[in-house]
Structures are given as structure tokens and as C-alpha cells.
Specification:
The chain is an alpha+beta fold. 31% of the residues lie in helices and 32% in strands. It has 6 helices and 14 strands. The strands form 3 sheets. Strands 8, 9, 10, 11, 12, 13 and 14 form a 7-stranded antiparallel β-sheet that branches. Strands 1-2-3-7-6 form a 5-stranded antiparallel β-sheet, covered by helices on one side. The chain has a two-stranded antiparallel sheet with strand order 4-5. Helix 1 packs parallel to helix 6. The mean pLDDT is 94. It catalyses: 5-amino-1-(5-phospho-D-ribosyl)imidazole-4-carboxylate + L-aspartate + ATP = (2S)-2-[5-amino-1-(5-phospho-beta-D-ribosyl)imidazole-4-carboxamido]succinate + ADP + phosphate + 2 H(+). InterPro entries: SAICAR_synt/ADE2_N, SAICAR_synt_PurC, SAICAR_synth, SAICAR_synthetase, SAICAR_synthetase_CS. Keywords: ATP-binding, Ligase, Nucleotide-binding, Purine biosynthesis.
């Protein structure tokens, strides 16, 4: 990589240019943030763990016909990706009530939803990433109607696959966040990452509401053993992927 100019630094990754204009390098950080970066810390090895988990899941999704920005991993904490213009939406798919859904609706934690819920949030830290109605999303021209329909359809497809995959890992997929981007041909691609940072994951063998948590909620809620939980998720993902090969 001859040209490694820093293009952007977010909470979890640094994005660099490469000597190929349509390819970027994502460097995954060990930094941890919560509550819109009001809480900050570090999780040892998180960058490499999340990069590896994301790469394996992107490969699995691509094999099931879901187009992603993923190319390969030149290092454990680095991912080469196709350059995309990120659609400024955080797309949250929910299977079980948790987090803000419980806070905003009064639904008890752990309520199984009859069908998955797809929520759109405005990706804007200054505004606090507010929940959007479809009409507000279109009013702000964050995406076209066709793109919103495509994103919602893709999100549900991805949910179907991930629920099944995580189940094979002995993990319940509670909810998760997705981001999408447009490549130079205006093709919609799944972007960002899929990891314990962006998914709520509960250990299926554990009933205790604190001990079952295997994701960033351990950091958010000061539950401890964050590194161990992330490592355990990685090991289970690798076991399932290796068993398929």
C-alpha cells in the first residue's frame, strides 16, 4: 500500500486511501465507545477480533448472494474494502426487545417480536442519531424511495441468514445495526462491520440476564469480562465457518 492517507477516523475504525482509487483500507481500533461516545474505553484485541468476525460474516453473506464492500484482510485488524458513499442511515433490525426499544415503548426486555422490526436512524452524532419515520427520511433526502425499499428488503434477508448462522454458534441474535453504501456504479452494498460491537448477542446456554451477554452491552453496562466475551464469539464463529469448509 503506497498511498495511505487517512481519509476518515470514526469511533471504531480509521479509513485510509490506497494506491487504487476504488479500494480503501479500514483499520479496526481497540477503542470502545457507548452512548454516542459519552462513555469511552478500550477493549484489548477488539480491533482484530471484530475485523476477523466481520470478514468471515461478509464472506458467508457473499456466498448467499448479499453484495458487500469486503475484499480481503491484509492484516488481522485491517480490511480492504470497496470505496462506497455511505448512505447516512443506521439500519437496526430487531428480533427481541432490548435497549432503546424497551426504553421507548415499555416492552419488557426479552420480548420476542412476532416479526422482525426494521428501524432507521439518522447517522448524525450532533443530532444524537435520531430515530426517523419513513416520511422524515425522505423529507431529508437521505435516500430515495427505491433505495429505502431495497435497504429494508436486504436488511431482512441479512437478518434471516444471520439468525441461522448465530444459532449454529449457540448464540441468539437479539438485534443488530447495518450500514449501506453506494459504489461508483450506484450499486447498494452492505458496508461497515458485523461484530459484537454492532450486534446484541446472547449465549443460548445461559439464562442469567447478565452472564448471557456476549456483546458491547458488557462494556456499556459495566458487566466485566468484555474481552473474554468477544473472544468466545470469535471462537464460535471460526468453529462454524471451519465446519462448513
Amino acid at each position: 500500500m503506497s498511498d495511505n492517507t487517512k481519509l476518515y477516523e470514526g469511533k471504531a475504525k480509521i479509513i485510509y486511501t490506497t494506491d487504487e482509487p476504488e479500494i480503501l483500507l479500514a483499520d479496526f481500533k481497540d477503542d470502545a465507545t457507548a452512548f454516542n461516545a459519552q462513555k469511552r474505553g478500550s477493549i484489548q484485541g477488539k480491533g482484530s477480533i471484530n475485523c476477523t468476525i466481520s470478514s468471515k460474516l461478509f464472506e458467508q453473506l457473499a456466498a448467499h448472494g448479499i453484495k458487500t464492500h469486503y475484499i480481503d484482510c491484509p492484516a488481522p485488524n485491517q480490511m480492504r474494502v470497496k470505496a462506497v458513499k455511505i448512505v447516512p442511515l443506521e439500519v437496526v433490525v430487531r428480533n427481541i426487545a432490548a435497549g432503546s426499544l424497551c426504553q421507548q415503548t415499555g416492552l419488557p426486555l426479552g420480548t420476542i417480536l412476532e416479526q422482525p422490526l426494521v428501524d432507521f436512524y439518522y447517522k448524525d452524532d450532533q443530532l444524537g442519531d435520531p430515530l426517523l419515520t419513513r416520511d422524515r427520511l425522505l423529507l431529508l433526502q437521505l435516500a430515495t424511495e427505491e433505495q429505502v425499499d431495497s435497504i429494508a428488503h436486504l436488511a431482512l434477508q441479512i437478518n434471516d441468514f444471520l439468525k441461522s448462522f448465530w444459532q449454529k454458534c449457540g448464540i441468539t441474535l437479539v438485534d443488530f445495526k447495518l450500514e449501506f453504501g453506494l459504489d461508483s456504479q450506484q450499486q447498494l452494498l452492505l458496508a461497515d462491520e458485523i461484530s459484537p460491537d454492532t450486534c446484541r448477542l446472547w449465549d443460548m446456554t445461559e439464562n442469567d440476564p447478565n452472564r448471557r451477554v456476549m456483546d458491547k452491552d458488557r462494556f456499556r453496562r459495566d458487566l466485566g469480562n468484555v474481552e473474554n466475551a468477544y473472544q468466545e464469539v470469535l471462537q464460535r464463529v471460526l468453529q462454524v465457518v471451519d465446519s462448513k469448509n
